[in-house]
Automatic annotation (TrEMBL):
Keywords, alphabetical: Cytoplasm, Isomerase, Queuosine biosynthesis, S-adenosyl-L-methionine, Transferase
GO biological process: tRNA queuosine(34) biosynthetic process
Subcellular location(s) of the protein: Cytoplasm
Family from the record: Belongs to the QueA family.
EC number: 2.4.99.17
Protein name from the UniProt record: S-adenosylmethionine:tRNA ribosyltransferase-isomerase
Subunit structure comment from the entry: Monomer.
């Protein structure tokens, strides 16, 4: 598949710059896979598409305020994005980071001194800070790592709105945005319909948003992301499917964790009697056969992106393209803080 097939025209003013304050009042485009029928709803009406015995699986990862602003010894400003922790000792922590430019050397973040170095595999790391200093900086000085298409500085309110109401496992540098539409009340209403609510964890890293730089989609390589799934959940999933009920997956991150496990496209990070832990680099694009997920709740994705490729794999690409064009025509809000889709 050519990367150009994942492109579509999008007016810039449809890219949501602010969150919807009443989460479940976002618009919802419902796309039926078999017929291509499209419905236009409000997100809280999603309850009508569940049946007793279905299962809704969410990603409980929590976004860390990983964007820090420091200064060089010369006084120049430098923005730092913490990507993932590499090493932690009692008095020193090492993080893989991203910065603009090629700076290497000392950096001051508030009153804490650290160092930026390039390690043997060419990746930037920051170290010489204690774990306590990192926690203090993130708690007091960190900003939520909003994606670059949101053309404003992060605000304090983003700490609330760029986070799902069920987030609890620290580790992501981006929100699993399909989950931003749920409220505690909506989840309670879904459960009251006899739907099983279950959680997994996948920590969202740069791999989810890594641009596709090859012409042929099949040549793209995903970065690995860490996930955890309870072993008992796997047993429940197959029982639900055996009974003819549906597995609803909230977002492409939840889907990648589930399908990465089911397709055995993951590196085992040490399972125990209760939990599966792994790193998955699964890349889902058209031609992939889904093994777990029956219904997908997702946002509208960037052109030429890996999440859009996953959506194309889940539903006929022509039907998805038609749905996207109708969303543009009806002025849905796109991307992280935008509206939602349900594909059944």
């Amino acid at each position: 598949m050519k990367i150009t097939e994942l492109d579509y025209p999008l007016p810039a003013d449809l890219i949501a710059q602010e969150p919807i304050l009443e989460r479940d009042k976002a618009r919802l485009l419902v796309l039926h896979k078999k017929t291509g029928q499209i419905e236009h709803k409000i997100f809280y009406e999603i309850t009508n598409y569940f049946q007793e015995g279905d299962m809704l699986i969410i990603n409980n990862t929590k976004v860390i305020p990983a964007r820090l602003v420091g200064r060089k010894p010369t006084g120049g400003k430098i923005e730092i994005l913490l990507i993932k922790q590499k090493k932690a000792l009692s008095n020193e922590v090492e993080w893989e980071i991203m910065t603009k430019g090629k700076y290497e050397g000392d950096v001051f973040i508030d009153d804490i001194k650290a160092e930026i170095r390039i390690n043997c595999d060419g990746k930037k790391i920051i170290f010489s800070m204690s774990p306590q200093d990192v926690k203090k900086l993130l708690d007091e000085k960190g900003f939520m790592p909003l994606p670059p298409y949101i053309k404003r500085q992060p605000s304090q309110s983003d700490r609330q709105y760029y986070q799902t109401v069920y987030a609890k496992a620290n580790g992501s540098i981006a929100a699993p945005t399909a989950g931003l539409h749920f409220t505690d009340e909506l989840l309670k209403n879904i459960a009251n319909r006899g739907v099983k609510l279950r959680e997994i964890t996948l920590h969202v890293g740069v791999g989810t948003f890594k641009p596709i730089k090859v012409k042929n989609l099949e040549e793209h390589k995903m970065d690995s992301e860490y996930f955890e799934i309870e072993k008992s959940l796997i047993e429940e999933i197959y029982l639900v499917k055996k009974e003819g009920k549906k597995i609803f997956s909230v977002g492409t991150t939840t889907t990648r964790a589930l399908e990465g496990y089911a397709s055995e496209e993951y590196e085992d990070m040490g399972t125990d009697d209760f939990k599966i832990r792994g790193l998955t680099d699964i890349f889902i694009y058209p031609g992939y056969e889904f093994k777990i997920v029956d219904a997908l709740i997702t946002n509208f994705h960037l052109p030429k992106s890996t999440p859009l490729a996953l959506v194309y794999a889940f539903c006929d690409s022509e039907k998805v393209k038609k749905a996207y064009m109708e969303a543009v025509e009806k002025r849905y809000r796109f991307f992280s803080y935008g509206d939602a889709m349900l594909i059944l």
